[in-house]
Batch of 4 targets.
Target 1
Amino acid sequence: MGSRRVFSGIQPTADSFHLGNYLGAVRQWVDLQESRDAVYCVVDLHAITVPYDPEALRRRTRVAAAQLIAAGLDPERCILFVQSQVPEHAELNWVLGCLTGFGEANRMTQFKDKSARGGADQASVGLFTYPVLQAADILLYRTDEVPVGEDQRQHLELSRTLAQRFNHRFGETFVIPAPYILPAVSKITDLQDPTAKMSKSSSTPQGIIDLLDEPDAIRRKIARAVTDTETAVRADEENKPGVTNLLRIYSALSGDSIESIAAQYGDSGYGKFKKDLGELVVDTFGPIRERTAKILADSDALDAVLLDGARRARRIAGETMAVVRDRCGLPPVA
């Protein structure tokens, strides 16, 4: 393992990851476990900041972990665990919450976005302090680098600020985490509304390609993806957002440049282009879907992998919290 540690987490808020999650995060996590000391978790505590069904959460947490392993995370080469099985996350969240200014938390854009949907009065305190828990997740593992997209940069800044504040007030304790900006995977947009990001919370089922979709469903969704009245396959964000999005997906999965793919199809219409893209997605996701089903079928083995991951994570988290408690003037735990 490399000596620099990376940490990242993913929420279990749906029955399947989608194409945007896969390209934007999961695929990069798999690559990073080769060159870094990698710690990854399914952040179920983050998932309870909004109303939820306990049984669905239980199921989705397992499905999320199974998909991560099926997509290529190797529990031998990284630490993979479920957040709530390491209670130090909640403990450090409280300590950092006591160092966070109310105005500071109030400026976090994600809270504004999410609370705007349901009204700020209905939003939970957990949703408000979500970025503080995120900071605890990161700082607990003395993380050097955090793989982030542009949309998470503000939250990482809070982690850096709180680490520096704690170190200044109580002595050098935390590593100041740096962003590991993921290789440019441009934003994957909704297949039915190419001006909107592909997202479980705002897209229609037809607008999202799920990692666990059946092959025919994938082919159908791509065949029905919104394009335009022209026939030329070319990238043009302004006038051809739908085709441009499909080109981005094709390029990200094949490794070929957008220019070479556009040149390959030219003015031949969208039929063959969409058909070939459908097969490319099926070939990528099919094996992951099959492996996920196999992993979920042996629930005892999956539980054992996650418990082992939690034990390994707790060794690091426990060491960090012992120092934090001592520096803060709190007694050691029994």
Target 2
Amino acid sequence: MVEHAYDKTFSDHCVFMKRFLDGNFIIILLYVDDMMIVGHDAKKTQSLKRELNKSFAMKHLGPTK
């Protein structure tokens, strides 16, 4: 995630965050082979998913329940 300009949080090494100049942010939570992406801007989160899908086989399981 560091290669994609995401910073690892100090409190949990499985949580990454990226802040954008427009005030938006994306938070990524990783656990083994699971990932949850949280952000305000759907276009930015979709762009991130497309970028990660180039490197990893991914499935979108829908909104978190």
Target 3
Amino acid sequence: MNAAALALVGIVGLLIGSFLNVVIWRVPRGESVVRPPSACPRCGRRLRPLENVPLVSWLALRGRCAGCREPISIRYPLVEAGTAILFIGVAVRFRDDWWTLPAFWYLAAVGLALALIDIDVHRLPDSLVKPSYLVGALLLVVATAGGGAQWGVMLRAAAGAAALGGLYLVIAFVQPRGMGFGDVKLAGVLGMYLGWLGWGSLAVGAFAAFLLGGVWGVSLMAFRGAGRRTKVPFGPWMLLGAAVGIAWGEQLWQAYLGLLG
């Protein structure tokens, strides 16, 4: 994929990121992501089309509402830029397999939305997680058929969903304060994607989530005085761990097996 194609992917990512800002704000509140049009949450002024251009509008408005001059959170352009970076990263990772791109672009988009919602409200909405099973499975079927992969990868994807979802279900029963059922449901989606890529990706993605989440938890206790009862959303670490598994899972797994002999 050449530079022009990656630039186009980045622009699409910016546009998707702009929509994700709406999803992140409205879904936890039970609001429609389609209507009404975007407006300032303080004064209610509807945004004009030129005020909705990803990144550019925020910079042009100097981070303030054109009506009431209320500051606009920098998270809005960061979500847009972050989505563009994720989309480009997926394009680079699967540059030789165009059929696979839609499946992992979808995961990147819904994953970013879920991570930020979990940070905000400590909840992973079913309205985003549950449809991801169907959408993800259909897109992976398309990737399998179009990319010429063996259909056994779909069986591995189903096994991955069951394995990772089952692991999190056991943890939720053993330690209900530390793991919610939203995490369990998200684990199934991530297991499906990681399993489709390979057992190494699944193992690395699962381990990376607990490793990164554990490091963050220890850091909070060491530097911010967090205790055992401090609630820390785990969804973002599950998604970040999955990203590690997708990007480098098979290579890291093979390196690990090599160390074992």
Target 4
Amino acid sequence: MASAAPELSVVIPVYNEEEVLPALFARLYPALDALGRGYEIVFVNDGSRDRSAALLSAQFELRPDVTRVVLFSSNFGQHRAILAGFDHSRGRYVITLDADLQNPPEEIGRVLAELAAGYDYVGTIRIERQDLAWRRYASRLMNAVRERTTRVKISDQGSMFRGYARSVVDAVNLCSEYNTFVPALAYTFSMRPTEIRVAHEERGAGKSKYSLLSLVRLNFDLMTGFSTAPMRWFSVTGIAIALLSVVFVLYLLVRRFVVGPEAEGVFTLFAIAFFLLGVALFGVGLLGEYVGRIYDEVRQRPRYIVGTVLERREEPE
């Protein structure tokens, strides 16, 4: 029989973070102990190929009273690791935190205070971000696109440092879609959301696991998973281009009768043709994203496979 449920669960996905884990342990546990509340930490090892799993197992042996470790059989991605953490968490409040120490563990108390005040979803906005310039600009661009394609209102969608009430976590656990964006999904179930500004630090060690391609793929999950607006926009764009094309053809026809045959304008026609070809290819790719999501869903494959769960169990009386 499992021990009594704590007030707070901290879910931390881990993927190839052996360099930063010791520093994370050294700051995380004291920060949580200082809160004076019952807590548990749910580490989810997302198929790490380094010594992360061994370090997590050793930490479980040191603090089995508050540590739970979920070990994936392979790499399934950060958001599925968070979903697994949700599924194995027991706290009244759940806070997600990256393992790289860019979000200081000492800020957890501030998020917890907002949850205790009655908010069921607490987002965070990173101030003075310590990321590369291209990541900051890409994040702003993706934020702008998401705001215009979905009803999800998240100021800093790249921050995974967030707090959720148990009611929101339980609702997320009932969902079964294969690809999703956890903060946005949780936001759709929130009745009283809020956001706070938090500090942001340089990565503790190692390198970011997110490439530009990964960020683009993640934002496609966000846009196609929570809105059909991109398809509607593309349809409207197609109608507008078709009408402009008709107008242009009429203009060329009239000009031929008025001016006569002309050789000029060939490169303009080529440019227009290439533009229309680009629009068509973009539309095919966008449609492919939606079809691909449907394909993933109908296969009904598991989102993740848990190899082992390390947790302390109480002996039945």
